[in-house]
């Protein structure tokens, strides 16, 4: 029964995405898009490492922001997980993780400037919300039986450490390692708003047409992510965490009066600052919704729906690359490398590159979102198929794909896809900073115009939209009885 329900739900999502295609701007407007793409590939094939005298500093700053931000986020998330049963805590975590790192960075830039604190908090705050939720779920899934065997009078902290934490520790470590990889990607992307990480130098090289330098930076980024397990060993992590704060660099001194003014004046709606009262506030809000919020919400939803369905299609095509049922000793490492490259490329970074090549439209964003997320889910689903044992006379090739494996992993595939739905929505909104007319476009425009009150309302709308999609996705997973545990979260 659930299978037919899953198929009907899938067809409904595909039909909605097809309808969205008719109202989406998917044009290519660049003068010579394929020539530009060819020059980019030429730069990847012939990277120029000699001109990157700032490479060492860029790599160290990228790693420093990632380690400090993720470290603080994990610490705060663990504390939040211990009290996650509170509705207030759950709501707080949902809200802070619903706001993208770049939105947090844009907020902190207004009063901290290009101070290292801006980049650290931009990563730490949303990651604390994510860690709080996932850590709590991992702890909840542990076996409660050991707790009943403890001597009478055992303290709650000791009981927690020796029962739930001892069971959950491997899963906590595995998930934290995954979030560190995400933190490195987030740190690199912070360069696009001025922080001195890889993204800053990549944007500069692209603007100057130095594709060989772009190729070198991209290859180094892929090597950094691809070799993470080699250099980020558990015994070395404490050393990295101690050294990272000293590698963040320094910025201009923080002027705390700017912080006070931002919260007491800048984000207060203009009608209230000007004494126009509630009537003026309603007029102001109505104008903001009609001219910016509603168009931004519409474009965000349209782009998200197309990207979500394309992610699903690409995932079903890509998961055999990570499955032992379709690969051998030669093709297996190649497939693994392809998926590593796809999932290691931040959506924002790929969308930026494609926008430079194809011109402004929704198409670069759709491709970037689908490529990155299908790489993540394809890797996870491929690993899931490795747990399936086929009978000796099982068919091969297309029949094995269509009749043996895909039906068995379709439930987990939908569960992962619905989990990524809210994440795709977050990224869709933030891609507006690149010029695509999603909510992020209007947020960035308001900040450029020094209308922080408008920007904060639009960011709040973005957060509420993400929370709504997350609730809908969880409802669909429960209705379709899709198994999805915190320990396997992508």
UniProtKB/TrEMBL annotation:
Reading the lineage from the top rank, the first entry is Bacteria
| Alphabetized InterPro entries for the sequence | MetI-like_sf
Q: From the Swiss-Prot or TrEMBL record, state where the protein is found.
A: Cell membrane
* Keyword Transmembrane helix part of the UniProt annotation: yes
Q: Where are the transmembrane segments?
A: 63-83, 103-125, 145-163, 184-202, 208-225, 237-256, 297-322, 423-443, 455-473
Cite a GO CC annotation.
Answer: plasma membrane
How does this chain sit within the bilayer? Multi-pass membrane protein
Task: Recite the UniProt keywords alphabetically.
Answer: Cell membrane, Membrane, Transmembrane, Transmembrane helix, Transport
Record carries keyword Repeat: no
Give the protein's recorded name: Phosphonate transport system permease protein
Give the species: Marinimicrobium koreense
């Amino acid at each position: 029964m659930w299978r037919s329900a899953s198929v009907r739900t899938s067809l409904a999502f595909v039909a909605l995405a097809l309808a969205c295609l008719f109202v989406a701007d998917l044009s290519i407007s660049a003068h010579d898009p394929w020539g530009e793409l060819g020059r980019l590939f030429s730069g990847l094939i012939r990277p120029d490492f000699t001109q990157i005298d700032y490479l060492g500093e860029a790599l160290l700053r990228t790693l420093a922001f990632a380690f400090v931000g993720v470290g603080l986020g994990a610490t705060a998330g663990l504390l939040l997980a211990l009290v996650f049963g509170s509705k207030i805590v759950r709501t707080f975590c949902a809200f802070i993780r619903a706001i993208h790192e770049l939105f947090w960075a844009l907020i902190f830039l207004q009063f901290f400037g290009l101070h290292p604190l801006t980049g650290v908090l931009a990563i730490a705050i949303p990651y604390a919300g994510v860690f709080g939720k996932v850590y709590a779920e991992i702890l909840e899934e542990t076996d409660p039986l050991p707790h009943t065997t403890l001597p009478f009078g055992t303290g709650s902290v000791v009981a927690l450490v020796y029962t739930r934490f001892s069971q959950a520790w491997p899963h906590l470590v595995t998930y934290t390692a995954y979030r560190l990889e995400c933190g490195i990607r987030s740190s690199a992307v912070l360069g696009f708003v001025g922080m001195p990480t890889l993204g800053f130098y990549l944007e500069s090289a692209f603007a100057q047409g130095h594709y060989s330098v772009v190729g070198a930076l991209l290859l180094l980024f892929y090597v950094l992510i691809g070799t993470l397990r080699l250099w980020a060993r558990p015994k070395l992590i404490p050393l990295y965490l101690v050294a990272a704060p000293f590698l963040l660099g320094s910025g201009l001194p923080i002027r705390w009066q700017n912080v006070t003014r931002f919260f007491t004046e800048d984000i207060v709606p203009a009608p209230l600052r000007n004494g126009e009262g509630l009537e003026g506030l309603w007029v102001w809000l109505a104008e903001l919704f009609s001219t910016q919020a509603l168009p931004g919400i519409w474009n965000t939803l349209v782009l998200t729906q197309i990207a979500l369905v394309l992610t699903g299609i690409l995932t079903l095509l890509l998961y055999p690359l990570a499955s032992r049922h379709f690969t051998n000793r030669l093709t297996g490492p190649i497939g693994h490398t392809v998926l590593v490259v796809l999932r290691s490329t931040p959506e924002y970074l790929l969308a930026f590159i494609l926008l430079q090549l194809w011109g402004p439209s929704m198409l670069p964003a759709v491709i970037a979102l689908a490529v990155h997320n299908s790489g993540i889910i394809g890797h996870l689903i491929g690993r899931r198929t490795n747990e399936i044992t086929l009978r000796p006379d099982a068919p091969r090739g297309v029949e094995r794909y269509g009749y043996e494996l895909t039906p068995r992993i379709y439930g987990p595939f939908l569960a992962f896809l619905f989990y990524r739905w809210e994440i795709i929505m977050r990224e869709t909104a933030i891609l507006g900073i690149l010029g695509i007319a999603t909510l992020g476009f209007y947020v960035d425009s308001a900040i450029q115009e020094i209308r922080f009150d408008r920007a904060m309302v639009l960011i709040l709308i973005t957060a509420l939209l993400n929370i709504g999609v997350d609730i809908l996705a969880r409802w669909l997973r429960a209705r379709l009885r899709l198994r999805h545990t915190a320990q396997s979260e992508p």
